Amino acid sequence: MGEQRTGPLDGVLVADFSRILAGPYATMLLADLGAEVIKVEGLGGDDTRAWTPPAREGVSTYYLGVNRNKRSIALDLADPDDLAVARELARRADVMIENFRPGGLRRFGLDYDSMAAGNDRIVYASVSGFGALGGAHLPGYDLMVQAASGLMSLTGDADGPPYKAGVAVFDVIAGLHAAVGILAALHHRARTGVGQHVEVNLLSSALSGLVNHTSGYVAGGASPYRMGNGHPSLFPYEPLPTADGDLVVIAGNDGQFRRLCQVLGLPELPDDPRFGRNQDRTVHRDALRPILVARLARRTRDEWFRDLTAAGVPCAPIATVDGGVALAQELGLDPVVTAGGVPGVRHPIGFSETPPRYDLPPPGLDEHGDDIRAWLTGRPRPDRPAAPSPPRPGDRT
Q1: For 193-265, where are the alpha helices, taking DSSP H only?
Q2: What is the pLDDT of residues 93-134, one digit of tens each?
Q3: Is 120 a catalytic residue?
Q4: Considering only CA atoms, which of 176, 163, 186 is closest in space to residue 208?
Q5: pLDDT score of 394 more than 80
Q6: Number of neighbouring beta carbons within 10 Å of residue 369
Q7: CA-angle at 384, arms to 381 and 390, nearest 5°
């Protein structure tokens, strides 16, 4: 067996003062890549510890999903001794991430200006709901941002009510943006020796994540509207009924549409001036849809899926989450990994030389508190004669 490889972020110490989803998701991604993440929780723990059902052995699967490969310490920032521990952790850290309301850590001396004064190399990431200016007073819940950004106005049937997405999509996108910002700032520090403040807010992440819809408005003056499963600029690009269930059918370009028509036995359709180009199909979708639906109704979803896929036409049956995991397994993506006996979803990025690690299960509240305190304060643990060898950041003083 060859030498064990370390992650690309091996040696990076992250002080994680975030909770719920956006921040913990970002820090789990960093931890999977080798960073040493110390999760700082209040005495009551991360809110998501109590977000059940579902649960695994009494622990919220929401919490389990974004907190592997971390160590936990519980601190009461109103307690002078605990606050001293928190400040010392931040002083030693390469990265600090927090998602308190903007300015909320200033009274503890844990804001960016205070931390940078004692550690000018720190990369300090703040995640908020609506930014640190006019929206500083607003709490940062994903559902609020789905509503305020316009996403809900785009989700649902055209003649029905607005709907939220089935996942906290902007928390996830903001977490990804935070991770990207942290990595960019670490690269800048490697060149200059200077850290900086990285700021991410859910509303800005939402407007960026709405991509073609926000672009359509700011660049084209077009205000998008709710279309159910339809696409404003492509057709077909939606679920269509077959003999036994819906199949998502996509013609992303004119060549794909021609191949779709060949498999459906409708070779004349691409020569119809209403349907030959994508912009024409989009304008005349109400005329084209019943023609496609009538032909799809002749066979089952799986039969069409097999033949359309073989012809290079993008399509997919609508699966439940278990079906999505099963498909990833079938395709060799090995989607489920185990960290300390707790199953989770594989890190989404593959590396040929420095693969992600799955060493530690999501920690219990304050599970590593004694060890971390001993390392930071130099005092021995109560039940040990001397502090243990610290984990990965042990050479930091």
Answers
A1: 202-209, 211-220, 254-264
A2: 999 999 999 999 999 999 999 999 999 999 999 999 999 999
A3: no
A4: 176
A5: no
A6: 22
A7: 60
